[in-house]
Amino acid sequence: MPRFFIYILISILLSFNNIIITSLINIKHLCKRNIIYYRMERNTFHFLLFLIGPKLENPSFKGREQISVEKQLLIAIYVLATPDSYRSISERFGVARSTAWFSVERVLRVIFSIRNNFIRWPTHREAQTTWTNIQRLYTFPKVLGIVDGTHINIARPKKDSNSYINRKGRFSIQLQVIYKDDLSFIHVFAGMPGCVHDMRVFLYSGVQQYCTPEYFPEDSHLLGDAANSIQKNVMVPFNDNGHLTKKQKEFNHYLSSARITVERAIALLKGRWRYLLDKLPMTRTDLIPYYIVSCCVLHNICLLNYDTIEIPIVIPDTLHIMEPLAITNELKEEGNIKRNRLMEIITNDNF
Fold it and tell me: Is residue 325 packed enough to be buried (19+ CB in 10 Å), middle (13-18) or exposed (0-12)?
């Protein structure tokens, strides 16, 4: 169905649910000239309002001033898109600082609650589409997704602050993402302290439990980097010890070429939601993962609505933590055998 008709249908549904945009003063913030502040098209805002508006209606503001659903959402989107002080935000929207903070927390918790509707593992057919597109563009076959991690800088935590210091000496929380060729996320995991190694983040994320034929049909796999461990469903480059064969170097080249979208996906996420780019002004580490994952949900919603941004992006260098599954020598050996087989296929002149 053409996108134009989809939004007409949504507008009709909005009117029946009494969630229509009643305040032109609020919605004017989303005009083209202000897209740099919100990094979201007006149509995407309408779509999001339709999704979560009913859950934001008639909130208990506990003595705070009552504000409309539209304004709550506008404040939250503005905070994520523009790292500004709550004093400045309260002046911009004409609300108290406590009301602005309460609105942001409330909106993001609602967005987090719908995460499984927008961040989900692909079906067999969707996986086929992904690996077909990646193979056409980068030669590498049967790639179901690409896994990588990034650090989200945070303020010094009140508790166990030393465990949040990463290798660059900054306080951070880690975000691991797996995404498809269209840059949409199929799995996200946030919450591990900055000092934790990438491989341990992978093990605690629960992805290891997905490494079965049910979730990786037709012997498909993820593409990881050197921080990941080789196994049947995770392909990583050969360790460059200075003695790689020509075929091993070619394999690494094709794998790296396919992973080049890593920078694009994470850059798009942080470039749109600048709240993640600088430093989260929060010390409660129990709340930070909600904010990070909510940004990932919004990332997918924007892509679903063909909402792209053309703003130059410059990036400096599931909440539940699963019990890790060990990657046994047997799993590693299976991965090595498969990697060697793929190397022969990829580097074959007739491929």
Answer: middle
All structural domains of the chain with their residue ranges: 119-259+280-299+325-349
pLDDT in tens, 34-52: 555 577 888 888 899 999 9
| Local structure of residue 350 (DSSP, 8 states) | T
- pLDDT by residue (tens digit) across 144-154? 999 999 999 99
Q: What is the pTM of this model?
A: 0.84
Q: Cβ(145)–Cβ(186) under 8 Å?
A: yes
Alpha helices in the chain (DSSP H): 3-16, 24-27, 35-38, 42-56, 69-81, 86-93, 97-113, 115-118, 124-138, 198-204, 246-258, 261-272, 288-304, 329-347
Distances (CA, A) of 265 to 75, 166, 173, 327: 25, 22, 18, 27
- CA atoms within 13 Å, Cβ hemisphere of 77: 28
Helix/strand number for the chain, H first, E second: 14, 5
**C-alpha angle 173/177/181, rounded to 5°?**
155
Residue 192: strand pairing partners: 174
Q: What is the sign of the dihedral through the CA atoms of 111, 116, 117 and 120? A: positive
Which amino acid is located at 155 in the chain? A
Is residue 72 within 8 Å of 55, Cβ to Cβ?
A: no
The closest alpha carbon to 180, from 151, 147, 219, belongs to: 147
Residues in the chain with pLDDT values less than 50: 4-8, 10-28, 32-33, 311-322, 324, 350
Half-sphere exposure for 150 (CA within 13 Å, toward CB): 23
Half-sphere exposure of residue 247, counting CA atoms within 13 Å on the CB side?
11
Other Cβ atoms closer than 10 A to 22: 12
Query: Which neighbouring-strand residues pair with 143?
Result: 221
pLDDT, the chain, mean:
83
DSSP 8-state code for residue 245: -
| Positive or negative: CA dihedral 65, 71, 75, 80 | positive
Q: What are phi and psi of 5, to 5 degrees?
A: -70, -30
